[in-house]
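Pilot study result, target chain (94 residues):
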Amino acid sequence: MLKGELIERICGEIDGLGKKDASQAVDLLLATIAEGLTAGRRIEIRGFGSLGVRRRRPKVAKNPKTGAMMDIPARTSVHFTMSKSLKQPLIKKR
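Predicted structure:
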């Protein structure tokens, strides 16, 4: 689902909500999540999941094309853990 499709769905579900207002709400939600993650905080949305920041250690890896060893620096990534209520319907689809 794309951001535009999400905005359209929100407008269809809530009567009287304009596309511009829904777009601002989605933008504010995403900006708030990004701001929290940038500050190193954990974001938890009940019924959906949680987002957190993980720091990865530096490591040495081999370039598969040339065989040369490369140093990969430490980095930060976002980790998502889905809630049980989201996980169960996905497991049943298998």
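One observation from the pilot: The two ends are 21 Å apart (CA to CA). A full batch analysis is planned for the follow-on phase.
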